[in-house]
Amino acid sequence: MDDHKLKVFCTVAESKSFSKASEIIRLTQPAVSLQIQALEEVYGTKLFNRSGCIITLTKAGELLYKYAKEINSLYMAAEKEMGDFTGLVKGVVTLGASSTIGNYVLPSVISEFRRKFPKVTMHLVTGNTKSVVDYLNAGSIDIALVEGDVKKQKLIVEKLIPDEMVLIMSKHHPWAKRNNISIFDIAKESFISREEGSGTRQMIEKYFLKHGISPQSIKISFIMGSTEAIKGAVEEGLGLSIVSRWAAKKESRYGSLKTATFKEDRFLRDFSLLHRKSKDSSYTLDKFLIFLRKFPFDRLLNS
Checking CA distances to 84, which of 38, 43, 249, 295 falls within 20 to 30 Å? Predict the structure, then answer.
């Protein structure tokens, strides 16, 4: 039995889902099931209760989980000390990111990090802010990068970079040549929104409320599960939306979307780095965190 099987086991236990575990650790679902079956054969007992979509640990599974967490922590401690001793940066870092950061910011960061440390494998799991925070709380990912408010008290929240939100509209929209628009005018137009749980939606609603506009009074014409879908709908003239300047960077440069700021004040939020209070972290993760905190994000946004 090796540490890989125990990591798979812990990921299934923490995510309570074979499909979510397969996404997090980048194995097919059948491969995840085979790893669990192998452990069950070793111990001669079932480790999970499976009832439809609900996955829970058996009593034997709870016992193994306690020791598996300790074993995984010891593996991590050994890796960290060996890394300090040899200076070799290798291994796996699993990141969780809300969709804006995962789609528009991290790919370039990861690419530059891997050019510097080619022996590191990076796994990136994207989702809305709520789901990514849940993954981190469950221990399924090493760190998370999110937008929006985070209320989980057992996490350390560290502001990484500021992010400006901008209005996006079709290049054929009557406002296309205007540089700034009143939030009160926007509230009268057809609006395309993200889904519940999205950090972007959370911040937009908060911004409207700040100016005395109830989110219920916004004329939402569509609710979409991704920023890419929203941008496509806006390009087709189906409504307006508000997205991160990062998300609109390419379309704004090539003119397929027009952007504007807000007359009342700048709409700013933070991209935050989240990690657990546990001191367990690998040498490679520590190297990535140092790299991330020093990364020249302004250069990337303006390139």
Answer: 295
